[in-house]
Every structure is written in structure tokens, then in C-alpha cells.
Amino acid sequence: MNTRLPPFSADILREVMNIGGAHAMTALSRLSHGKVMITVPKVSLLKLEEVMDFVGGTEQVMSMTIHPIVGDISGFILFSYAEGDASSLASYIQEIGGMKGHKENFPSTLQEIGNILSGSCLNAIHQFLGISTTQSSPEGMTDMSGAILDSILADIGQRADDALITALGFREEKRGIGGNIYLLFDPDSTQIVLSIAGKKVPTR
Amino acid sequence: MDSVIIKMGEVKVTKDTTLVTFGVGSCVVIILFDREAHIGGMAHTMLTTDKATHTQMATNPLRYVELAIPELIKEMVNAGASKRHLVAYLTGGAQMFTLYRDPSNTIGPSNVDVAQRVLSEAGIPIFDEDVGGKRGRNVRFDCATGEWSANTNG
């Protein structure tokens, strides 16, 4: 497999992530009644092992929700939060929904938030690319980031030797809750995304 | 004392120092130890075998249990360990979650099965193991004393 991204493809993927990420964060902003700031997306084609450093190491305990994408394209959307940020977000959204302090429901609250955000993200990507996918049921967990990610990388590793990862950071301003969205497409799906999106970008 | 850190897809051998690796989920970690020579080695592998590239060589063969264990044995012997003295410690192979709700998607347990088989074929006894479960582990092995730990976080 070619381990280098073809010309402009990083720009295209960054744009796909911009569109998807912006819609997801608009949804978060509506949910949280606050302003959400996003970073410029990062795109990297990496050896599976290098993904760990890309997401900031293996040891740190993170809360993640994992949303498998199935359909015309396949891959994963991940939402990743520092442990404290995940609790703050779940607690804050529960509070807005009028059910304060249900700590035992934090994981399912986070999964539901993830569902809403990844749904918005995918919907925007569908409209942009004219493709159809569905989200498989999400998984949520809090553990060392390496331990969560190695299972996902192992799944991708059964079909590919490297992984294309697109990342976008966000921060909800009122409560200072931050996190990251990661978009991981399977290699075949990456080709589909690049080919469709490429036609929409004027070539220089 | 300095520790030698092993990342996913790496194999390292050392004498008298401590080997560590962090955030092990469905990956399996194989430790070999020669108690007489105080030489220890660790492999942090991710998948059983190279299904993705088939005929092509994967960018990192040490990612695979089936390829990493022979390399680990070779490096142990090169470092002065005696193959007769080698014992193995096995950890990792957790089932962190069930992707796609597919119960046949069991990368962690498969990794453990293959590691046990490859070690048995190589004639290396498993001295101790802490495998499976649903939590990530941090793994530490002290080559001076042969003490080891595989701790979950929280």
C-alpha cells in the first residue's frame, strides 16, 4: 500500500473533517447552550504504531465513545475526553436536561452525546459527499488511551497496514470542557472519500 | 534505576533492568526471562498474524504475535540467554469492548491463544500469566529479580 498521501488529499480530508466537525460542534453548542471553539483539523497517514503518539501517548486515562461507521464507507468516529472533562460534560448535559447528579448514568449520557454529535458529523459528510452510511451502536469506556485504541487499531490492522487519522480539537467555552474528535476511515473507504471529495475541489 | 520502555510493535531485550509497557488492551505482551543470566525480553504485539498485507511484508512484522515471538527468542539468545533456561510470562489480551456487537470479534483472546501456542511450539513454559478481562494494563518486569506486575488502572 502506498504510505504517502496523494497531493491535495490531506487538504480534502481536512475539509471533510472541517465540515463534519463543525456540524458536530454546532450540535454540542446547542446541547450545552454555549460557544464551542474548534481547532484546525490535523490529517496523518500513519503506521498503526504511530497512532498512539499522534493521540498523545498510551498511559493517560481517557473517556472515549467509539462510533463504528458502516455503509458506503466504513471506519470509526471517536470522541475522546480527559476523565474529568467527560464527567463535567455528562453532568452538565444532565443538568440541562433536568436530571442532575446521576453519576451512574454518566457513561450512557456520554454515549448519547456522542451519538448526537457523530450523527451530525456523519450527516454533514453524507451531504457533502453524496454517500450513505449508518452508525453502529456506540461503545463507551474510561481507561488508558493505549488500551482503548489498540483494540480499534487491531480491528483496522486486520485489513490494513496503516491508518489514516483525522483529528479535530474542541473546547466548550462556558465550562471549559475540552475534547478531540478522531475520524478513522478504512483504507478502501479513504480512497472513496478522496475520489468523491477530490471532484468537488477545484484543482490548481 | 532506569526502565526500558517498550511501545506497541516493539521487541526489546535487556539485562538487570526493568522492562515496562503502558496501556495494554487487546494487545498481548510476551515476556521471556532467563533467571540465571538475569536477561529479560518483552514483546508488545497487536495481532495474531499478518492478514492485511499477505504476500507483501508489513511495515512492522513485530506487530504480530507469530512473528514477534521467534524474534524475541533470537534476541534473547543473542544477548547471552540460554534457550533451555527461558520461561515466559504472558499478559494483556483483554476484550475491551465488542465492536459492531459482533461476538466473534475477539482480537484479545485470539492473541492470547496464539501466543500460548507459539510458546508451546518453541518449548518455552509459561511461568505466570494474567490475561483477558475488560481493562487495560500497565506491565512491569524486573530482570534483576524476576518480579513482575500487570496492573489495571482504576
How would you concisely characterize the structure shown here?
The complex is a heterodimer of chains A (204) and B (154). Chain A has 204 residues and is an alpha+beta fold. Chain A has six helices and eight strands, in the order H-E-E-H-E-E-H-H-E-E-H-E-E-H.
Main attributes?
heterodimer, A: 204 residues, alpha+beta, Chemotaxis protein chec, 8-stranded antiparallel beta sheet, 8 strands, globular, B: 154 residues, 5-stranded mixed beta sheet, 4-stranded mixed beta sheet, 9 strands, 34% strand
Molecular structure report:
- The complex is a heterodimer of chains A (204) and B (154).
- Chain A has helices at 9-32, 51-54, 83-96, 106-129, 145-157, 187-200, and strands spanning 36-38, 42-47, 61-71, 75-82, 133-135, 139-144, 162-172, 177-185.
- In chain A, 46% of the residues lie in helices and 28% in strands.
- In chain A, strands 1, 2, 3, 4, 5, 6, 7 and 8 form an 8-stranded antiparallel β-sheet that branches.
- With 204 residues, chain A is an alpha+beta fold.
- The model of chain A has no long low-confidence stretch (mean pLDDT 88).
- Chain A has 6 helices and 8 strands.
- By secondary structure, chain B is α+β, with helices and mostly antiparallel strands.
- Chain B is 19% helix and 34% strand.
- In chain B, strand 4 and strand 5 form a beta hairpin.
- The longest helix of chain B has 15 residues, at 107-121.
- Chains A and B meet through strand 3, strand 6 and helix 5 of A and strand 3 of B.
Please identify, by name, the CATH architecture of chain A. 3-Layer(aba) Sandwich
CATH superfamily label of chain A:
CheC-like
Question: Could you tell me the number of beta strands of chain B?
Answer: 9
Please tell me the total number of domains of chain A.
Answer: 1
Structural category of chain B is alpha+beta
Give the CA-CA distance, first to last residue of chain A.
26 Å
Distance between the termini of chain B: 26 Å
Order of helices and strands of chain B: EEEEEHEHEEE
> How much helix is in the residues of chain B?
10-25%
What is the fold named in CATH at topology level of chain A? Chemotaxis protein chec
Query: How do the strands of the widest beta sheet of chain B line up side by side?
Result: 2-5-4-6-7
By oligomeric state, this entry counts as heterodimer
Please state the CA-atom Rg of chain A, rounded to the nearest Å: 16 Å
Number of helices of chain A: 6
The count of helical stretches of chain B stands at: 2
